[in-house]
Every structure is written in C-alpha cells, then in structure tokens.
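Quick start: read one record
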Amino acid sequence: MLRFLIVTLALLVTAPGSFAQGDHVYMGMKKCSMCHKGEVKGAIFEKWQGSQHAKAFTNLTDTAAAEVYKKLGKTGNPQQDAACLKCHITGAGADSAKAVALIKDEGVTCEACHGAGADYGKMSVMKDKAAAVAAGMSADPKATCIKCHNQESPTFKAFKFEEMWTKIAHAKPKAAG
C-alpha cells in the first residue's frame, strides 16, 4: 500500500504529459529490444512495432494531423511542437541529460509506459518486480496511459483502459519446465 501511495504522489507532482522520470535515465528502444525481441521472449518488441505507439511521431506528418493542427489555430510543423511531442515521443520534456537516448522517430516506446529504464533494465533487476519498481519502472500502467490519453489531447475520445489495454498487453511467456 505504501508503495502505491508513493507512486501515486510521484505521478501527481509530474506535469501531465511529462515523461521526466526523476533521476532515471532513458536508454532507448534499441536496448529494450535486445531482451524483448523474438518469439521466445514474447515478441514484445514486434508487438510494439505493429502498434500505433510505434507510429506516433510519424503520424504527426499525415493529413489528419495537419487538419487537427490547423483547427487548433497553429501553423508550422507538429513534429516540432512541444505540445504535440509530449505525447508523440518518449521522453519529451525530460531533462536533456536524462533523455540522451531519445530518438524521435521511435515514437512512443517501452519507456513511455514503463518508465525510463537505465536503472531497472538489467536482467537481475527486471526479474524482481519490486526492485524494478524501486529502480523507476512504472507500477501503474493506467496512470501512465492517461498522461496522454486524456482531455488535453485534441483528438481525445473516451478512454476505456481495460479495452485499450487488450490491444497492447504483453507478457513474457513462462519458461517451459
């Protein structure tokens, strides 16, 4: 219960849409994919690649995005607008020293949902959920989702976490044995 309260308080003091994760450092999709790629490892990377999250940054270049941007009374490039980037790329708004691994074309990656991963990315930490959470891994996926899937989004539609979660849910398969 105490851990839940601490995580909740941390989320409340983080500005909506901000992915700055305290003192934790982003490591980037390339490093996440090293351990979460392929059928044996649950095809987690491949599931992300086929998702709308993977396309979040490039979607800012399509006609629909241009129309939304224009309706907001804005001109210019949504791919350069901090108001758009806060939900279309991982680590937007983070201290630049902490976002060194940030690659815009990756869109919304593992670390947008799971937290900046350099501190919990080691296998020894990942195998212990409590240790991973203590090292910066998000313990509350719904709270992370609603940082972007909320009324601040100009394209917001009612967000049904349980329904949407089924589209992105992933788990490493249990070892045979």
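DSSP finds ten helices and no strands in the chain.
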